[in-house]
From TrEMBL:
It is found in: Membrane. It comes from Parasulfitobacter algicola. The chain crosses the membrane at residues 12-33, 45-65, 71-95, 107-128, 134-153, 165-184, 196-216, 228-246, 252-277. Pfam families: EamA. InterPro entries: AA-Vitamin_Transporters, EamA_dom, EmrE-like. PANTHER family: AMINO-ACID METABOLITE EFFLUX PUMP-RELATED, INNER MEMBRANE TRANSPORTER. This is EamA family transporter. It comes from the Bacteria. The keyword Membrane applies.
Length: 281
């Protein structure tokens, strides 16, 4: 919802770059206040992971979501985030030791993937018609896929201070994305109060603060566990889109959401039961 508000006065690439830069500055300030430092410049392995995390978890998905939300409702973009755990399942199987695809997880993946297909194929979103709307849907789903790959890269990164890694990732994302935004869209024009507040909020909370939390959880509990939080995203995005942006959604989208969440429930049944029962294991 906040991205949708910011897009009223800010171009999509500029919005993505600006929120990354604001987030990077906030994390760098916090890092210095805590007496920390960025990874050593000669540590090519950690910086390689930081670049990968910055691109896959910030620069690319932020750009895709901002561009896509010019043509689809914010609630639709939020619904695509529910597909993130589905994408993580096969990736974790291939790249994360001990996180294997069982028969149950495979069934969950199939059900969730079917829901993603219904989501992308749903028409009548009420924003625009034609090829741009179709590409916008794929852009939002592509952002979810970027987050999924980024979570695997985060998990595979060598042991390093989490705040230092988060700051390095956002700094590299800002360095990559800012010149691209300036070349493609030029300097931003005048920005009214609501989009400006939305931009500052996006940079500080869903970018800076959320990035630290995300890295910490992925590094400790794993990418599959982290992506379970995404079942909340479509609920709140639909609610906020309806209440504050007057967005109306076709019923097919809710069918897609049911399929995706069912796929997550099937694939992560033991984890969900453990959360409900308070099982720390």
């Amino acid at each position: 919802m906040t991205v949708k508000i910011a897009l009223r006065d800010i171009d999509p690439l500029t919005l993505a770059a600006a929120r990354v830069v604001i987030g990077a500055c906030a994390l760098y300030t916090l890092l210095k206040l805590r007496g920390g430092r960025l990874p050593a410049l000669n540590n090519r392995v950690v910086w390689g992971f930081a670049i990968g995390i910055g691109v896959l978890s910030s620069a690319l998905p932020f750009a895709l979501l901002s561009w896509g939300q010019q043509y689809v409702p914010s609630a639709f973009a939020g619904m695509t985030m529910a597909a993130l755990p589905i994408f993580v399942l096969p990736l974790a199987h291939a790249f994360v030791p001990g996180d294997r695809m069982s028969t149950r997880k495979s069934i969950g993946f199939a059900v969730g993937f079917a829901g993603t297909a219904v989501l992308v194929g749903t028409g009548g979103l009420g924003e625009v018609d034609g090829p741009l709307e179709i590409w916008a849907r794929f852009a939002c789903v592509g952002a979810a896929l970027c987050y999924a790959v980024g979570s695997i890269v985060t998990r595979r990164c060598p042991d390093v201070d989490q705040l230092s890694l988060s700051t390095a990732a956002l700094l590299t994302a800002g360095i990559i994305l800012t010149p691209i935004a300036l070349i493609v869209e030029g300097l931003p024009g005048s920005i009214s109060l609501s989009p400006l507040i939305a931009l500052i909020y996006l940079g500080l909370i869903p970018t800076a603060v959320a990035f630290i939390i995300k890295v910490a959880v992925i590094r400790s509990a794993g990418p599959s566990f982290m992506t379970l939080t995404n079942y909340q995203v479509p609920v709140w995005s639909v609610l906020f889109g309806f209440l504050f942006l007057n967005e109306a959604l076709p019923p097919q989208l809710f069918l897609a959401l049911v399929l995706i969440l069912s796929g997550i429930a099937i694939s992560q049944w033991r984890t969900l039961v453990g959360l409900i029962l308070g099982d720390k294991t």
